[in-house]
């Protein structure tokens, strides 16, 4: 619960700009003669868009009712120049940014006007080849007009985007006045909708994952209903985790669908998806640890000390997972530093490694204990569990290596395939391990015997062993619908 609250606070405190609509909400104007960048847009041109897009639609950027107003001070209102033209919002190709923008001189002067390098002084100036236009270099620039109270808001202005790529939102002030704020929004819409180009395949991924997990859940549910009297804790836990996977993928897919239609990434969907994501991993770790310690098969539950240790470890894991998932989702749109992301990743790696080590040691001890009592079937089952965990560890290390290299290098995949390292590889790995674990603990009519197999071995005395065996035999009879034979009368007096 603590981790869920932490994730909620983090998600709600982030600006809802992880979309193709950037809102200026009384955003301060940049300092005089300065430039600031705010957001990255991933755009497909009409001819490059994914299949299924609207054939009649075009990819466009819309400057929606952008307007500047003096800050709410008398000095600012009195000092604002009449028809101040120097506040501008632009969308520039990211790969050409430094060829278009001269970092030492990006504001035009009257000398530039006289030499025909600019049409007007005090404006944002980019380096265009001779004879080219803003459209040919892929740039869109709009002046932000100043309005007074009661004035009509400016109309929406749109420009077509003809080249696929990454675009960066730029905010400039090439004049000598800055005591003002800007309101309005800038929206980029692809032919298929508002979803960023680097997220379109993520939406498709979670759509297919929803279908696959639903199928797996139905299969597990049918098997569980057939043998519901023989089910024990681990099998019920696996079914619960599969259901959480269905919820996570479904909510995430709905989130992306809504995002694509509205242009906004709604906090409700995002936080719900984040909650199911973290719960899925924490409950999985708890189930793995329980099975490794014999709980749910050999024991009823974790002892007090182990429960406290697991609670602390799982809480730290949930908090770190929430932070990592939240930050990685803003990595590309806000161009977060690789070093910062590596620092955030490190605590999760340490907790993850500690959980794996704890589980393997506990599982090894359990197998040795069961082997002493010659319970071959149970030994085989737990060795299969160990094999699945080792496969999961190997795949997890590969995924971690992929993510670390991707973060450290600034991205090893083209932006169209960024979804693979962030969502694809972890989801496929988790699904494979979950299916293998489901296979190991597949429900059948003899599932209930695991508990009795261990009870028999725990009694060293002949009397204790006889009692445990008799109890097991009685339950076998009950499971078959028969009442076990019981002696009465004179036999009881002997």
UniProtKB/TrEMBL annotation:
Transmembrane region(s): 205-225, 237-256, 268-288, 308-328, 340-363, 384-405, 425-442
The GOST seven transmembrane domain covers which part of the protein? 202-447
Q: Which compartments does it reside in? A: Membrane
Which Pfam families does its entry note? GOST_TM
Q: How does it sit in the membrane?
A: Multi-pass membrane protein
For this record, an example GO cellular component is: membrane
Report keywords, A-Z.
Answer: Membrane, Signal, Transmembrane, Transmembrane helix
User: Where does the record locate the signal sequence feature?
Assistant: 1-19
Protein name as annotated? GOST seven transmembrane domain-containing protein
- Top-down, what is the taxonomic lineage of the species of origin? Eukaryota, Sar, Alveolata, Dinophyceae, Gonyaulacales
């Amino acid at each position: 619960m603590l981790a869920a609250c932490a994730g909620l606070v983090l998600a709600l405190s982030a600006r809802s700009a992880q979309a193709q609509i950037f809102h200026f909400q009384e955003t301060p104007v940049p300092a005089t003669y300065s430039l600031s960048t705010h957001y990255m847009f991933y755009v497909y041109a009409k001819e490059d868009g994914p299949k299924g897009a609207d054939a009649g639609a075009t990819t466009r950027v819309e400057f929606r009712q952008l307007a500047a107003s003096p800050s709410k001070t008398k000095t600012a209102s009195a000092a604002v120049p009449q028809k101040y033209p120097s506040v501008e919002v632009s969308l520039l190709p990211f790969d050409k940014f430094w060829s278009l923008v001269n970092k030492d001189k990006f504001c035009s002067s009257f000398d530039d006007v006289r030499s025909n390098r600019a049409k007007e002084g005090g404006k944002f100036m980019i380096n265009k080849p001779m004879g080219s236009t803003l459209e040919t270099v892929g740039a869109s620039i709009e002046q932000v007009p100043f309005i007074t109270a009661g004035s009509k808001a400016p109309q929406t202005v749109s420009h077509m985007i003809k080249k696929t790529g990454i675009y960066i939102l730029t905010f400039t002030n090439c004049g000598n006045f800055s005591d003002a704020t800007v309101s309005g929004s800038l929206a980029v819409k692809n032919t298929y909708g508002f979803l960023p180009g680097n997220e379109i395949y993520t939406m498709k991924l979670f759509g297919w994952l929803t279908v696959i997990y639903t199928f797996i859940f139905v299969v597990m549910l049918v098997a569980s209903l057939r043998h519901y009297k023989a089910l024990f804790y681990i099998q019920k836990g696996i079914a619960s985790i599969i259901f959480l996977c269905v919820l996570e993928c479904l909510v995430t897919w709905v989130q992306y669908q809504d995002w694509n239609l509205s242009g906004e990434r709604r906090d409700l969907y995002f936080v719900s998806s984040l909650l199911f994501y973290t719960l899925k991993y924490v409950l999985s770790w708890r189930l793995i640890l329980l099975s490794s310690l014999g709980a749910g098969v050999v024991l009823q539950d974790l002892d007090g000390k182990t429960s406290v240790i697991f609670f602390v470890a799982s809480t730290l894991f949930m908090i770190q997972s929430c932070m990592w998932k939240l930050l990685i989702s803003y990595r590309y749109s806000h161009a977060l530093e690789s070093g910062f992301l590596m620092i955030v990743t490190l605590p999760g790696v340490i907790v993850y490694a500690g959980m794996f080590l704890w589980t393997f040691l506990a599982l090894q001890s359990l197998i040795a204990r069961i082997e002493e009592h010659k319970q071959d079937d149970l030994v085989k089952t737990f060795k299969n569990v160990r094999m699945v965990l080792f496969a999961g560890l190997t795949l997890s290390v590969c995924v971690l290596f992929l993510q670390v290299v991707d973060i450290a290098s600034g991205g090893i995949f083209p932006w169209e395939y960024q979804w693979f390292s962030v969502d694809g590889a972890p989801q496929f790995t988790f699904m494979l391990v979950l299916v293998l674990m489901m296979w190991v603990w597949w429900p059948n009519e003899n599932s209930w015997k695991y508990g009795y197999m261990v009870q028999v071995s725990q009694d060293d005395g002949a009397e204790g062993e006889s009692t445990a065996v008799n109890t097991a035999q009685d339950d076998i009879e009950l499971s078959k619908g028969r009442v076990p034979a019981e002696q009465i009368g004179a036999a009881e007096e002997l």
